[in-house]
Specification:
mainly alpha
Length: about 40
């Protein structure tokens, strides 16, 4: 979901999606990376 939101320039929604993914699986490193990109978007 986060990537879809990022692609639509909906960065706030993307960040929330990444936070949910991290809460489910704290070891999912791509979520942290992509969330960082969304913060800079």
């Amino acid at each position: 979901m986060g990537l879809a939101y990022t692609g639509l320039d909906k960065f706030k929604e993307a960040i929330e999606a990444y936070k949910k993914a991290i809460k489910i699986n704290p070891d999912y490193d791509k979520a942290y990376y992509n969330m960082g990109l969304a913060y800079t978007g």
